[in-house]
Amino acid sequence: MTALLSLQGVSKRYGAVKANSGIDLVVDPGSIHAILGENGAGKSTLMKLIYGVESPDAGSILWKGQPVTLASPADARRLGIGMVFQHFSLFETLSVVQNIALIVPGRQADLARRIRALGAEFGLEVDPEAMVHALSVGERQRVEIIRCLLLEPELLILDEPTSVLPPQSVARLFDTLRALQARGMAILFISHKLEEIKELCDTATILRGGQVTGRVTPRDHSAKDLATLMIGRAMPPPLPATPQAQGEVRLELSGLDYINDDPFGVSLRDVSLRLHSGEIVGIAGISGNGQQELAALISGEVMRPGDAIRMMGRAVGGLDAAHRRRLGFAFVPEERLGRGAVPDMSLADNALLTAHSAGLVQRGFIRRGPERAYTAAIIAAYDVRTPGPEAEAAALSGGNLQKFIMGREMMLAPKLLLASQPTWGVDIGAATDIRQRLVAMRNEGAAILVISEELEELFQICDRLHVLHKGHLSPSLQTAATSVEQVGSYMIGAGA
Amino acid sequence: MSISFTRRAKASRVAMLLAPVVAFCCAIVASVILFTALGKSPGQALYSLLLEPFLSWYNFSEVLLKMAPLLLIAQGLAIGFRANVFNIGAEGQLIIGAIAASALPVWYPMGDSAWMLPAMLVMGAGAGMAWAGIAALFRTRFNANEILVTLMLSLIAAQVLNYLLLGPWKDPNGFNFPQSVMFPDAALLPILLPGTRVNVSLLLALIASVLAYVLMRHRFSGFQLLVGGLAPRAARYAGFSETRAIWMSLLLGGLAAGLAGASEVAGPLGQLQRSVSTGYGYSAIIVAYLGGLNPLGIVISAFVMSVIYIGGDNAMVSADLPVAAVWVFQGLLLCFYLAGLTFIRHKVTWIRRKVAP
């Protein structure tokens, strides 16, 4: 049997970084093939090479045994390769069928009929006339998949498809993928979630640091074995969970309403929560359900006068971010470059950005010595891999920059810390380290609010959980007394 | 076939420093072609434009005289440009500064108080700030674009100048020329280099350069401006006030331009005339960018630009170049520099379309 797609010694470098080196990959027709690896292992680069977004520096790509040059995604689509990206590329102001008609030739009436037919066959039901902005994330993903299927590909690539889905929708997606496989389609499934891969995939190619570290049949291996191949060492031990006496209320949201000016943004309705010193409270939910809006309202980047938000016992609705920080608030935002850090500035200057109150400024003058020392301390304590404090923030990898920002905010010893996606893009070892430090801060009496998409992480470190769905916050759930299923049902708005 | 520009992770430092030099050479080459096409002798033109300013002490002192206002205004503008606040109306702020400074000698043409000159400079700087402050108010209150507001305020300032010189402030013994009375000695800036027209405003401009350097390099408020320019969302995240950045940028730009205007009337002009507005406010924009918006670089670019000014005057006489030739040369310089920056910051790749088999 000729392989559908095979890669031989494919390499790609970006500057000094070898994103892929000497990758060999064989995808058989009708198989579900996993590409497993941590963030930064080179999965996305590999997919870009296969989908023609980038060209390899070395090596060759063979399609049904014939060498091919993929200069653009259009070339890849012509061969029969379709791809569903992690971030959807749909126009929100157009309907489903209009979006699809932009890529797929044919009259809209015919397309609508074919969309319904495909939906019925593969469990991808979606109303062709619906406007995209009104669709849930799961439905949008279905639109993306349908758009690929209409071009009748022989290979479908899915980049981290489950990261945006609530647990219930994952099972449904897997049914769809199995139905497609039964029709003879090959699927490349990119993920870092071990259990999913064991459940769904026939073969897995494991990447680490841009190289293939294993080719296995996932069903025959334990999650622990796969993790070892993926991160190069055994999984870190779980965190010690010690219950903690609660102190004063550090953050209180009471009936917070927020009408978003952006017609496609999320408005918040009657959001209430209390956060005490000595506890970690998590906000679960799929991105795009009001997390960004909530974080900006708490941080002071968006100000709404009133006393719906109280910090350390003070109404802070009319205070800007700098004032709130003076009360003992610190914040790690979701976006690192351009918000949490200035890309074109050195790490030292990026430390100054929010840590200026830590003795780095005297009478309006920047004290370069303490600035450097503080930066060096962050770099050392949080294992930031960088040449030094003079390195530009943009030159750091996402994970390293996250460690730096996390360190900068935590070293301020805040009374109240808001961390949005604290371990997103960070390797497992560093993620565990960050979580341990959060728990340690809590044990020392800090109040911590964590907004995260990773349920596993929230269950690991949080005392209590809330779920945010379409701008509405669920009641408080004691982590120890709740289940993933219960949180999952709040995530899709089904309630308890 | 298509071209794609991708941003480089890090721009080369050497290339950044070389860019103005390369732009300068390209501008020379382009103008040689242009001058030849005009039927002028390019050798003679370049000689007058670039060498003659250095060949006599008088010419060189005139270069220094021109340099003072250009340097002062450019330093003020560069602060705002780095904070992404684009004050394009320094010309208007200069005019208003010149008018305000002229009020005292116009009202007291026989004044001999030692306080006259300092008061004029303060009034000029203050009026420049106030004029720029209008744009800051409109921007922060009504979100009106400061580029348009400052530019339009310049046109208003020019009309105010015309009104005063043709009406209330016209010298009664001035044969109906649109100019004010000659200022008394107490209203004139002391000469810095004896035997030339170079006055202490050059010193003021150099002091301003040092202050600008300290502000942008060592003051936390300067750092906040830089963050606001480089990453507005990071500034909001850190709680650096955008309103404050807008006010500070425009007021400092207005202050510098107003002071430059005051120094012109209290310096080489010695009276208020229409020729106080010769486009320094616009040329200073080019100076600021050619200097890489860096206080030290601006000192160099201000000098180069002054050479071109004086050289251009010479070239009009000795090489018979039209007056516009200098403006064209300045424009070429800026174009080549900006093009150069694009190549430094971006990698250009030619993509040849290959059809897959």
Automatic annotation (TrEMBL), chain A:
UniProt key word ATP-binding: yes
Pfam family membership, one: ABC_tran
Gene Ontology molecular function: any one: ATP binding
UniProt-listed InterPro entries: AAA+_ATPase (IPR003593), ABC_carbohydrate_import_ATPase (IPR050107), ABC_transporter-like_ATP-bd (IPR003439), ABC_transporter-like_CS (IPR017871), P-loop_NTPase (IPR027417)
Residue ranges constituting the ABC transporter domain according to the UniProt record: 5-234, 251-495
Entry keyword set: ATP-binding, Nucleotide-binding
Coiled-coil boundaries: none
Superkingdom, taxonomy of origin: Bacteria
Keyword Transmembrane: no
Name of the featured protein: ABC transporter ATP-binding protein
TrEMBL record, chain B:
InterPro entries: ABC_transp_permease
Keywords linked to the UniProt accession: Cell membrane, Membrane, Transmembrane, Transmembrane helix
One Pfam family in the UniProt entry: BPD_transp_2
GO cellular component, one term: plasma membrane
Signal peptide annotation: none
Residues spanning the membrane: 63-81, 88-108, 114-138, 147-166, 186-215, 279-312, 324-344
Compartments, as annotated in UniProt: Cell membrane
Main location: membrane
Top-rank lineage group of the source organism: Bacteria
GO function term, MF aspect, one: transmembrane transporter activity
Keyword Membrane: yes
Recorded topology in the membrane: Multi-pass membrane protein
Protein name: ABC transporter permease
Organism per entry: Cypionkella aquatica
